[in-house]
Amino acid sequence: MASKLGLEITIADLERLFRWAPGGHPPPPAADAADHGGRPPVRVAYQGGRGSYCQEAAAKAFPPSSSWQRPPPLIIPCSEMEEAFAALEDGAADRAVVPAENSVDGPVPRNLDLLLRHPHICIVGELVLPVNHCLLSLPQAPRSALRRVVSHPQAISHCRDRLRALHLRVEEVASANDAARFVAENRIADTAVIGSQIAAREFGLRVLENNFQDLAGNFNRFFQLGLAGSIGAVVVEPNLDDNDNNKHKTTVAFSLERGVSDLFRAMWIFESRGVRVTRVDHRPNRSNPVRVEEREEAGEFARFDYVFVLDLDGTASDTNVEAALARLKEIAGFARVLGSYTCSLA
Amino acid sequence: MASKLGLEITIADLERLFRWAPGGHPPPPAADAADHGGRPPVRVAYQGGRGSYCQEAAAKAFPPSSSWQRPPPLIIPCSEMEEAFAALEDGAADRAVVPAENSVDGPVPRNLDLLLRHPHICIVGELVLPVNHCLLSLPQAPRSALRRVVSHPQAISHCRDRLRALHLRVEEVASANDAARFVAENRIADTAVIGSQIAAREFGLRVLENNFQDLAGNFNRFFQLGLAGSIGAVVVEPNLDDNDNNKHKTTVAFSLERGVSDLFRAMWIFESRGVRVTRVDHRPNRSNPVRVEEREEAGEFARFDYVFVLDLDGTASDTNVEAALARLKEIAGFARVLGSYTCSLA
Q1: At what angle do helices A263-271 and B263-271 cross, to 10 degrees?
Q2: Where are the annotated segments for Disordered (chains A, B) (predicted)?
Q3: Is A91 left (phi over 0), alpha (psi -120 to 50) or beta?
Q4: Chain A residues in contact with chain B using a Cβ-Cβ cutoff of 8 Å
Q5: The pLDDT of residue A245
Q6: Cα B331 to Cα B316: distance, rounded to the nearest angstrom
Q7: pLDDT tens digits for A7-65?
Q8: Which of A117, A296, B152, B222 could cross-link with B57 by S-S, CB 3.0 to 4.6 Å?
């Protein structure tokens, strides 16, 4: 009986580890949560593999902290953005961290499309992090042994000038973190990887250079996502102080019966109430991407139809924001607050 | 001497053919232009390979036409968007056609970045075309021989429901037109390709189904580009009538010293003068992607800096547009009209 119990524990542990693996589902709250006041760990899904910049963002947003009275957060890799959304929807994760924008390359529109497709998921926080592209190599290998540098095309494009000065062969790979793991596991001495600090830590590589990027103003913006109904229920306190660098924002998505020609009118609804519009985006209205309409002077005309996405200063419960949102709903085909949250600069 | 002359002609012809090849530069105006009133052919670079939707757009915008008094246009494939821009800059092409947006998947931001980097290139026309995804196969092969369908991930995502009903294996490839050529050249009877009508014509494939996409509202938007100084000099008359479906637009790009918080003010400059803003886009300001600024209430704050891109109703020479542009320049870090052009729905 004792041996059976032992076996059961082993299987449970294996299952937990297995479900923790990249692409798998997170483990259930640990049974030994009693050490942490009985509270289960926060489960944070992120888009990307081990060693990715998004893992770095998830770890920064949810660090282990004794003040939490919780076991360390479970940081769960998801190979696809869809997987991170699914983990929230099926209750396998309490939070998800996904990339939203790079200051040099622009926004990642995919997560707006997914937010529009998942009405129960909303933005609960925003995190801006400086990009630190590191030049990584095997710890034991001498620098003179290096013959080539590999990374994702985006990272390579961020480090073009610095790479040129190295006079090494440069090769693009689909995933910088997979390349870092490959170099570490196969002890490849002639190859450096441009990757994150967390990749160095995860795979035991040496950081030859920090901040290897050409431009100083290279930042990533990430969204923290949560399930709408659970925001109050799941107590998650990220370790980012509500300090002076933080800022309250509301993101609202809506369609307009008269399309872009009403966009300014929609913006005016906010600005005229003292609510500043700080971002204007649009995505295809997938339920009805093109409208054919009659124009008095020009006959039939096909116009692309959009879902507009505005960022506003303030929270959705501010009197002015509330009044403006109520007015917007009168002219919008649909309108939905995607989130009312705090922006943090780490 | 005659043989030498003969040889010279052959080399010139070979050179012309060689430079006409995919990725190469276009031939110089043909020597026998006398048949066409002495006018050289219009050379149109497009982004994509033979058989691509962009080739279809280029052919639609510049069809052979006797009314032109010119030899047929030379349609020149460019594998990269940069190559099409370079062909304009070095005088190897008179026009370029590049994809700007798909109504289901959203904009192609790369060409805005390139337009910002190439100050002498501007938008001279816009073309909206319905997407016609065709199911293509070898003409001789029976339909029952088909075992799989291949295409670019975007085309596959547009045809997901129809593909499911076929009960065939579906495989993603990097280039649908390369796949179409491969199927044709290697006489592969078990594979259908989702591709363009022009791919069927170019490679001799059979169109099993037209409009194989799931959604009816699937349109592509293309830009026609030209070199700013040459717009008056090179007479190019696309075969699209200035009919009732056409519409005059102006696209202006600018940066704002105070960033997004001044965006509404910039839009107001146009709207208050009766100039309708029909599109609001932004791209990273690559020369200065992030600004660190002091906020009275919140200390230091890093904000992403953008180049804003607005589409306006009307031409840049309209009195109201002109006045608004002059006013915009007073509050903008830089401001540039990317083009004043006609939008055509084919």
Answers
A1: 120
A2: 22-42
A3: left
A4: 101-106, 109, 128, 215, 217-219, 221, 244-247, 260-261, 263-264, 267, 271, 276-280, 282-284, 286, 288-291, 297-302, 304-305, 345
A5: 46
A6: 18
A7: 333 333 333 333 333 333 444 444 444 455 677 889 999 999 999 999 999 999 998 86
A8: B222
Tokens of A219: 């930042």
User: Is the C-alpha dihedral spanning B171, B175, B177, B182 positive or negative?
Assistant: negative
Closest-CA residue to A219 (of A292, A133, A295): A133
Chain A residues within an 8 Å CB radius of B217: 288-291, 305
Of A50, A34, A280, A273, nearest to A175 by C-alpha is A50
In whole angstroms, what is the distance from residue A15 CA to residue A8 CA? 10
Contacts of A221 in chain B (CB under 8 A): 304
A335 three-state secondary structure:
strand
Task: Please report the DSSP string for B320-335 in residue order.
Answer: HHHHHHHHHHHHEEEE
C-alpha angle B206-B194-B84 in degrees, rounded to nearest 5: 105
Identify the CATH class of A2-129+220-230. alpha beta
Using a CB-CB cut-off of 8 Å, the residues of chain A touching B283 are: 106
B345–A302 C-beta distance less than 8 A: yes
Which residues make beta-bridge pairs with A2? none
**Intrachain domains A2-129+220-230 and A134-217 with the same fold:** yes
Q: Which residues of chain B have pLDDT under 70?
A: 1-37, 65-69, 229-246, 294-301, 346
- Say how far apart CA B102 and CA B218 lie, in whole Å: 7
Closest CA to B113 of B104, B100, B126, B96: B100
* CATH superfamily membership of A134-217: Periplasmic binding protein-like II (3.40.190.10)
Which numeric CATH code is attached to B134-214? 3.40.190.10
A-chain residues near B302 (CB < 8 A): 128, 219, 345
What is the per-residue burial (b if ≥16 Cβ within 10 Å, else e) of B219-236?
Answer: bbbbbbbbbeeebeeeeb
CATH class of the B247-345 domain in this structure: alpha beta
Residue closest to A304 by CA, chosen among B64, B180, B311: B311
Domain ranges of chain A: 2-129+220-230, 134-217, 247-345
| Ranges of chain A whose pLDDT falls below 50 | 1-34, 231-245
Q: How far apart are CA B126 and CA B240, in angstroms?
A: 11
- Give dist(CA A47, CA A239) in Å, integer: 20
- Of the partner residues A105, A245, A289, the one whose CB lies closest to the CB of residue B103: A289
Q: Which residues of A touch B276 (CB under 8 A)?
A: 261, 264
For chain B, the residue count is 346
